[in-house]
């Protein structure tokens, strides 16, 4: 619940207060319902619900990070010096973010929908995309033609459609439940950032120099994405059956659209939401605009040491991704502590803009274009900057999404969920376009 302090600044009355089944909050504590008990270990409805949102968060970002963390593999596959290899990361991000923006914009206007069904459909689409990609890499790992590059981008597009469906549904339900569930989604997304980069780095350590084994590891990598998506869907179904879906229309998207009279009476206008959430959603945009500069540096900054296997490019580059993602995870977990959540929307917006300070420091590191002539010749310094860059990303985004629900009225929470994902897509798109500017600077 959002309250006002003596200085008229918004703050949460409690981040640990759970909503009632109808989505409202009350001053009394609702008794916990225990599902399982084994000795001192118990599983409550609240724990199951939070776990479901957390795993959905993993499934939301895992496909994106899977494509992103596999950049090294695809760049090598298409040729590091070829136009396809050089532009893989930026093209992938642009296709993904442009698709997300368009589809999230459409979904945000189709309110009074069955948000659970959107999550189911999104899971199924992502599951299918990565099963197909794993099978293709298994059957013919030597594909590196332009047509295959285009096909990968098509899978990126379809995966982005699936993720948009999941995002829209997840944020609508999380806003109804309470800010702690939005934080659960954000933590899950950070876990999805850590695990793919960690698994990719380990596979490079094990299969370094063995093309066939490296191809086999990437098949497992893509197959694991499908497994994670499937598990998230299963847990959500189980939670839905046990706990139900609060405050969300049981109609389908098609039925919601057909019932125009009912939809119009409950429709929340764009400007109504923007007036209440402008600094929060602009914080989301700026966070991603700054953050999407990071993959360009992480893919092109190399170690200042060249005589050790662990500092070779195939290991050091995934390690830099891992360090950034660990910082991102810790930043999101930190928002589980109420005192660390920035609830003043103006301060949050300034905080996200201030993150541009990391860019000049990254430009001083050992870029591939001037290898051996870095301004700051220190791997430790570079990795520390990446860690702080990741931490501030996770922290600022968690604060922003946790504030969406408390800043609007109860009957606006679902619409605000879809509204916030539109600006998430705007930030991703602007950030991916901006990344093209840095390609000639760092490459």
Automatic annotation (TrEMBL):
<feature type="transmembrane region" description="Helical">
    <location>
        <begin position="145"/>
        <end position="165"/>
    </location>
</feature>
<feature type="compositionally biased region" description="Basic and acidic residues">
    <location>
        <begin position="1"/>
        <end position="10"/>
    </location>
</feature>
<dbReference type="InterPro" id="IPR036259">
    <property type="entry name" value="MFS_trans_sf"/>
</dbReference>
<feature type="transmembrane region" description="Helical">
    <location>
        <begin position="218"/>
        <end position="240"/>
    </location>
</feature>
<dbReference type="Pfam" id="PF01733">
    <property type="entry name" value="Nucleoside_tran"/>
</dbReference>
<feature type="transmembrane region" description="Helical">
    <location>
        <begin position="53"/>
        <end position="76"/>
    </location>
</feature>
<keyword id="KW-0472">Membrane</keyword>
<dbReference type="InterPro" id="IPR002259">
    <property type="entry name" value="Eqnu_transpt"/>
</dbReference>
<feature type="transmembrane region" description="Helical">
    <location>
        <begin position="279"/>
        <end position="298"/>
    </location>
</feature>
<feature type="transmembrane region" description="Helical">
    <location>
        <begin position="119"/>
        <end position="139"/>
    </location>
</feature>
<feature type="transmembrane region" description="Helical">
    <location>
        <begin position="348"/>
        <end position="369"/>
    </location>
</feature>
<keyword id="KW-0812">Transmembrane</keyword>
<dbReference type="GO" id="GO:0005886">
    <property type="term" value="C:plasma membrane"/>
</dbReference>
<keyword id="KW-0813">Transport</keyword>
<feature type="transmembrane region" description="Helical">
    <location>
        <begin position="185"/>
        <end position="206"/>
    </location>
</feature>
<dbReference type="GO" id="GO:0034257">
    <property type="term" value="F:nicotinamide riboside transmembrane transporter activity"/>
</dbReference>
<protein>
    <submittedName>
        <fullName>Nucleoside transporter FUN26</fullName>
    </submittedName>
</protein>
<dbReference type="GO" id="GO:0000329">
    <property type="term" value="C:fungal-type vacuole membrane"/>
</dbReference>
<feature type="transmembrane region" description="Helical">
    <location>
        <begin position="416"/>
        <end position="439"/>
    </location>
</feature>
<feature type="transmembrane region" description="Helical">
    <location>
        <begin position="381"/>
        <end position="404"/>
    </location>
</feature>
<feature type="transmembrane region" description="Helical">
    <location>
        <begin position="88"/>
        <end position="107"/>
    </location>
</feature>
<comment type="similarity">
    <text>Belongs to the SLC29A/ENT transporter (TC 2.A.57) family.</text>
</comment>
<dbReference type="GO" id="GO:0015205">
    <property type="term" value="F:nucleobase transmembrane transporter activity"/>
</dbReference>
<feature type="region of interest" description="Disordered">
    <location>
        <begin position="1"/>
        <end position="25"/>
    </location>
</feature>
<keyword id="KW-1133">Transmembrane helix</keyword>
